Amino acid sequence: MANGGVPGQTRSLAEAQIDLGHDVIAVANESTREFLTSKVPVKPIPYRPHSLFNNVAAIRNLSPDIVHVSAPTIRMDAFLAGILHCSNTVPVIISPHGVLNPLGVRVRFGGKPKSRLAIILKRTFILLIVQALLYSVRLVHAEAQYEAEILRKLCAKRVVTIPMGINEEWYRQPRLNVSDCKTFTYLGRLDIYHKGLDLILRSAQFLKIQGYKFKIRLVGSDVSGSISWLIEHVKAQGLTKVVTIEPPTWGIRKEELFKSSDFFLGVFRYAGMARACSEAIARGIPLIASREGNWGDWVAHSNMGIVSQLTVEDISAAFIKAIKLTPREYETMSVRAFEYPKLNTWSAVAEKFITAYESAVL
User: Fold this and answer.
1) Strand spans (E) along 90-138
2) How far apart are CA 251 and CA 242, in angstroms?
3) What distance lies between CA 137 and its chain's CA centroid?
4) Which of 86, 145, 203, 264 could share a disulfide with 280, CB 3.0–4.6 Å?
5) What burial letters (b/e) apply to 165-197, b meaning 16+ CB within 10 Å?
6) Is 108 exposed, middle or buried (CB count within 10 Å of its CB: 0-12, 13-18, 19+)?
7) Nearest CA to 43 among 145, 32, 251?
8) pLDDT digit of tens for each residue in the chain (362 aa)?
């Protein structure tokens, strides 16, 4: 089996599949470094248009039983998958990881310039290439029911819903106790649109005016000047006492961040299942999440937090509900959050993927 695309969760899945006794090789951009510390063997390939057919030949030479593509909106990955599928070389599985969710299709990823031409080209590529792939490949993987619904609307015929896994080293005993002044934390890329941070700040302004006690911590790396915008907005709206903007954190400081958090924020306009949210629930920290970010359905299913729509009114209502929870209600929610990872280890998730692969080969 060849397993290529997005590092991180893809690497964790591949490692879990190896532990189950399967042969896995990651076919990745030659500039990718995340796999170098992994036990997953890597076939680096150049991601250049003139190398397309050489790359197809390289994958064919590996003679995989399955090719699992994790980045269908990357042109090279999409064309590789399409050629392999159309030539009947090998069954192809696609995992979009939330990037085809409608509010993500309207913008470019990673803070890239949002020119009208670039968006038109992106939508045209999805319409002509990606939708054709979704319709024709052997299987399409969705991380949540919301994404499954979107993929079916995009003409995907065979969709399987499997959540991403949880790293067992993240497990901590759930907090069980809750602060009088609840702290809501976001950790990740500080992308204002993608991560819904503009909505979070507008909700914070509403809560402050209403007199609620709370703290919000936005922690992470800058995206196209987002940090400057966030700092200026917090100052302009008089939120400096309740909202802090902080740089990325690791190690002991990261542990302290989780220990001081009562709720974790995953109110995204589009996203795959963010790893930081996985880390939070592995510590028993409930989520406030949107369906569009692929966490909302699992939060609702396991009752391990609060699901919010992408409006200031609904996010504000979610904050208020969280603030008003009794200690007993919070403890119950925290325990449920901690129970979810036990059922969704990478080993358990890898088993589900293997079953899906077997059905795709038939």
Assistant:
1) 92-94
2) 25
3) 23
4) 264
5) bbbeeebeebbeebeeebbbbbbbbbbbbbbbb
6) middle
7) 32
8) 445 445 678 889 999 999 999 999 888 777 665 555 578 888 888 877 778 888 888 888 888 999 999 888 888 888 888 888 888 778 999 999 999 999 988 887 766 777 888 888 889 999 999 999 999 999 999 999 999 999 999 999 999 999 999 999 999 888 777 788 999 999 999 999 999 999 999 999 999 999 999 999 999 999 988 999 999 999 999 999 999 999 999 999 999 999 999 999 999 999 999 999 999 999 999 999 999 999 999 999 999 999 999 999 999 999 999 999 999 999 999 999 999 999 999 999 999 999 999 988 87
What is the DSSP secondary structure assignment for residue 25, as one 8-state letter?
B
Residue 323 is encoded by which pair of tokens? 């603030």
Token pair recorded at residue 136: 């024709």
CB distance 72 to 96 below 8 Å: yes
Structure tokens at 236: 């302009």
Query: In the 8-state DSSP scheme, what is residue 101?
Result: S
Of 83, 99, 77, 93, nearest in space to 154 by CA: 99
User: What is the C-alpha separation between 307 and 304, in angstroms, rounded?
Assistant: 9
Residue at 201: amino acid letter: L
Q: How far is 208 from 223, CA to CA, in rounded Å?
A: 27
